[in-house]
Amino acid sequence: MAGLHLKPRAPFATRADLTGITPSGLAGLSRAEIERLAVPHGAARLPLAELFFVESGPDGVLLIEIGDERLDHVGAGLEAGEIIVDGAVGAWAGQGMSGGVLRIAGSAGAFLGAEMSGGVIELAGHAGERAGGASSGSRRGMSGGLLAIRGNAGPFLAERQRGGLITVGGAAGEGLATDMIAGTVAVAGGAGPQLGRGMKRGTVLLHAAPELPAGFIDTGSHDMIALRLIARRVPELAGFLGGATHARRIVGDTLMGGQGEVLVV
Amino acid sequence: MIINGVEIRDSFAEAFPMVGTRLIITADTPDWALTAGRVTTGFATSVIGCGCEAGIERTLAPEETPDGRPGVSILIFAMDFGSLKKVVPLRLGQCILTCPTTACYAGVEEGKRVPMAKTIRYFGDGYQISKKIDAKRFWRVPVMEGEFVCDEDTGSVEGVGGGNFLILARSRGQALKAAEVAVAAMTKVPGNILPFPGGVVRSGSKVGSKYKGLFASTNHHYCPTLYGTVDSALTPETGSVMEIVIDGVSFDSVAACTKAGIAAVCELGAAAGVIAIDAGNYGGNLGPFHFKLREIMGADATGAK
After folding, report:
1. What is the pLDDT of residue B302?
2. Chain A from 184 to 243: CB within 8 A of any B CB
3. For the segment A61-70, what is each residue's pLDDT rounded down to a tens digit?
4. Which of A151, A164, B47, B175 has an alpha carbon 20 to 30 Å from A263's alpha carbon atom?
5. CB-based contact (8 Å) between B138 and chain A?
6. CATH second-level architecture of B17-157?
7. What topology is assigned to B2-14+160-300 in CATH?
8. How many domains does the structure of chain A reveal?
9. Residue A141 burial class via C-beta count within 10 angstroms: exposed 0-12, middle 13-18, buried 19 and up
10. How far apart, in whole angstroms, are the C-alpha atoms of residue B157 and residue B81?
11. Does the residue A43 lie in any domain?
């Protein structure tokens, strides 16, 4: 795709939905067709060019300038290519994406990377609730790829996560990894209460032991070879793990028959 | 062709296609990694009786291994992919899983997949844990000592098995000394193993036997105690013959290994009792790979004869 540059004409008065505005979604469309694409805006649908100045940009990249917290579904369903947002985004950014890269310079609303199965999301700011989680009523959250949040994550991060890796530079809110099925979450800045309720499998990496529900059992501190392997194979976790060789392994949620683990390193 | 008084006979080694893989074994100490490597590649001298040919390729420094601990890389070769898929999990389960402090990783990325923890994980009885990173999965199997960490599977290569050369010397001691020097030089060439004890075969075989049902028997043409009584390939002064067999990941790696070995033997030269270098073949009709000794040593000849 020829690169595209979108610049909001004005701050959004109501929520806009950018579903389908991805490099592959725009491939094969002429500039005029792109400008006429109908974008849900509040209760109405407006042509893309009425909301944004549309210009060409570097190949394969969709650049959204300024950003807006009312811009929903940015990069939803992204399969390949790169989307860069020079500011904040609303809810559902990167929802269901299977490949490509989504870089967001600001913060994101709820459901960031919900049910994503591949690709990379890099968020410089904070994430709202249920990042990497499942859509309402859905049984499975994120199943693959990387969701890297540099700031804090809201409540219920990684809810029903099924696979992939989530890293958080700041702290995570309450209910982290609720009903987690598999996958890995590393939170550098600590986690809120009620972590891991209903957790089946999967790994939560923390630096300090959190407050855990009754179903978690502390198995003690162990020399774990897997830590050294992960530190080398997963560059995104190398900094978090450092040269760690030991971890305190807390297993749960055993009240639900779960075998998930919180590793405190 | 004569190099340093050693005759390089106009012969060739005849080798066969084999399917092989590489495993990386790590452990807390180099000794334990080596122990696991030796045990896993034990009883694997020849496919004729062992089902596979295996050996330690080289030792690995901590910075070369996936988990930063000392390790060894081993190569395992079998006649076909089906056999390889059987022998690798078998040896992994009996020899690496059981060896204190070890972990085991894929040593080949490309090619058809050979199962590792894909099979062995069931030892975890439901308590095993997997982690998938990109397309690569590894398993953590809880064991009494701690955890056994192992990759899901490894790739495979179409290699070459049965590269060889023979060292003809005046005495057993001199033949053995020359073989030891050759092995020391050959183990420095990556991508190859010398599957026989210490890298050396003292009982090279020929195909077939006078006895029904025996596939291989002593290569009587090279037995010094039969000299004169059979169609001997030896000279009167030859007192002993040692063979070195090479399996490698490619024709070129086996050729490079052969050259390194013969060059080391020739450096000892006639003064150390080495008479000639020969090679084992079946007339050239059985194996598609021919390692012609004089071609391989071409550049090193000092006086052609």
Report:
1. 46
2. 184, 201, 203, 222-226, 228-234
3. 999 999 999 9
4. A151
5. yes
6. 2-Layer Sandwich (3.30)
7. Alpha-Beta Plaits (3.30.70)
8. 1
9. buried
10. 10
11. no
